[in-house]
Amino acid sequence: MSADEAGHWDALHMGWNVDRVNHSEIYSDHGKHTNLVESFFSRLRNMIQGQHHGVSPKYLHQYANHSAWLEDNRRTDNGTLARIVVSNAMDAPVSRQWKGCWQRAA
Question: Residues 18, 37: contact at Cβ < 8 Å?
């Protein structure tokens, strides 16, 4: 994992091996740079603001996972994507977290 020199990334060092790139000294250090993650975060923010108009922090990780899945499968045709989604839905157990989320309380 790579991060820039900003202090808010210091917490990553507690759980992961993080390579730091000091952009004031160098753009890329032997292939380590932050462009991919900055691009992903930008697209995630645009998706949340444009498509969802905001999300609960409780479910932000689910939206990030969805965005990552879309990014990983961006070159897959729609028919194959539909088959993957339906197959995964049929194979997955009932989710206690999402069960009944569309139902309204009486």
Answer: no
Element housing 43 (H / E) = helix 35-47
Q: What is the model's pLDDT at position 86?
A: 94
Q: Is 58 contained in some domain?
A: yes
Percentages (nearest 5) of helix, strand, coil residues in the chain = 55, 10, 40
Q: What is the mean pLDDT of each run of 10 residues along the chain (106 residues)?
A: 74 78 73 73 87 85 88 93 92 78 57
Q: How far apart are CA 92 and CA 85, in angstroms?
A: 11
> Residues 38, 22: one domain?
no
Q: Is pTM, for the whole model, over 0.90?
A: no
Based on the domain organization, do 40 and 65 belong to the same domain?
yes
Tell me whether residue 25 is in a domain: yes
Query: Terminus-to-terminus CA distance in the chain, angstroms?
Result: 47
